[in-house]
Amino acid sequence: MDERAAIVPIAPPPDPTSSYWQDPPHQLATHRTTNDLPGSASTVIVGSGITGASIAYNLLAQHDDPSVLMLEARTACSGATGRNGGHTKSASYRAFLDNVQDQGEEEAAKIVRFEYNCMKAVHAFARQHGLECDSWEGETVDIIYDQGQWVRAKKAISEIKRILGNDDPAAQHKFHDAPETEEMFLVGGALGSVSYEAGSINAYKFVIGVLGLTLNRGLNLQTDTLVSSIHRSETDRSGWVVDTSRGSIRAERVILATNGYTSYLYPPVRGIIVPLRGTVAAMRPGRSLKEGLQSTYSFIYGNGYEYMIFRPAGSTFAGDLVIGGCSTKAPKEGLYEWGTTDDTTMDPEIKQFVRDSAAEYFGSRWGEDHPSGRIRKQWTGIMGYSSQGFPLVGSVPHEQGLWIAASFQGSGMVLCFHTAKALVTMIKGGDDRKLDEWFPRPFRMSEDRLKHKFSGRLHEKSPKNFEGHHQL
Q1: Label partner for 22 (CA 20 to 30 A): which of 50, 180, 390, 413?
Q2: Other beta carbons less than 10 A from residue 448's beta carbon
Q3: How many Å apart are CA 294 and CA 310, to the nearest integer?
Q4: Number of helices and strands in the chain (H, E)
Q5: Rounded to an integer, what distance in angstroms lies between the CA atom of residue 157 and that of residue 96?
Q6: What are the tens digits of pLDDT across the range 441-452?
C-alpha cells in the first residue's frame, strides 16, 4: 500500500467514462458565468461537486464575500459526486467501535449524529428548494454473510443505543435473522441483516440545483478550466496565485474541494489523502424482480461489501438498480485501484464482478435478464481516503488563506453538505465552541493529521478476533 499511496496523481482527464447520472448533461454542465476568466477573486473554490457547491452556497448566503469564483477542470459536477452510486446512507455503526476506542464516546456519538443529520439535511434542502433530483427517503438493509461482521454489527449497535440513547433517531436499527432476511429482502445465504433509515438521490441533479441557486447569489462558475498549480503570491505573501489552463488568478483565499485529486494540487497531502477508483453500474433488474424493491442494500462479506439502490418511481428509468463496489474481489483485493485518478477506464475483472453481482445475490429471484440487456451503463469515479478514516476540513497549517475540505471516504453524501457549513463557519471566524457542539473534532485539519500516512481502508474487513463466515 505504501507504494500505491505514494503515486503522483494526474489531473482529472478530459474524457472520463460516461456516468449514468450525467447522461444527458445539464445545460449548466459547460457554464461559464463570464466569457473571460477574472484576474482576481476574494475566494477561489477548486471543484464543483457537492462539497464545492455547498461551500459556495454557504459563503454567498452571508452576503459579505465580494467575489466567489469556482473552477472546474471538466464539466460541472463531473467528479465523484456526479459518478457515485446514488446512496444517502450513514452506516455509522461500521466504524463506531473503533471510533469509541480511538476518539472517545462523545466524539464517536457526534460522528453518528453528524452523518445522520447531514443525510436528512440533504433531502430536506431538496424539498425546501424544489430541486428535481429524485430524492427518496426510506429504509436500507445491510445483508451480512460473515460471522465477524455480524457479531461486530450487534455489538456496535448495542453500544450506539447505550451511548446515544434508545430514542435517538440516529440509533434506530432493527436486526433480522436469516429466514426473515430471505423473506423480506429476497436474498438467501446470509447470517442475517440489519435495517435502518437511509435514502437515495440523483446527486448530479442535486448539485446542479445547488449551483443554480448559488449562481443566482453571485457565484462565478468557470467550467473546463483546469487548475495546474497553486502557490503563494510573490507580491502579497498572504495571497495566492491559481494557475489554470486559461490564465492565472490572484486570490485572497483558496479552498480545495478536490477530494481524491487534492494531492495533485497540494503535494504535502500525498500519502495522507489517497485516491481510490470505484466502479459502478446501472442495470435493468431481472424479470422476476419486476415488482421492484422497497429498500436500498449493502451486501457485507468478510473483506468488503457492495452497495445498491433502486431508482424510485417517477425517476428516469424507474426500477433500475445502481450497484457499486467489488474491488476487494479482484486479485490482491483490488490494491491496484488505489493511487489512481484515472476515471477514463475500468479494470476488466472488477467491471465483470459488478455486472454479475446483483444477479448472484438475488439468485433464482433474479430471473432472466431484461430483453434489452442487463447493463444500461457502467463507469468509474475517484474517491478520497485518509489514514484515520475521516475527512480533512479546515485551514491548512502554516498556509494562511489555504483551506481544505476533502477525503470523504466514499461517503460524501452524508458528510459533505454539513462539512461545507462547518468550513464556512471556520472561514468567517464563527464561534468555535458552538461549532464543536455538532462538528466532529476528528474531522478538523491539523498538523498532527499531516503526520498520519495512509496504510489501508478502515472498518471494512471482518474483525480478526471473530472467526467463521458465509461467502457467496
Answers
A1: 390
A2: 10
A3: 8
A4: 11, 17
A5: 8
A6: 999 999 999 988
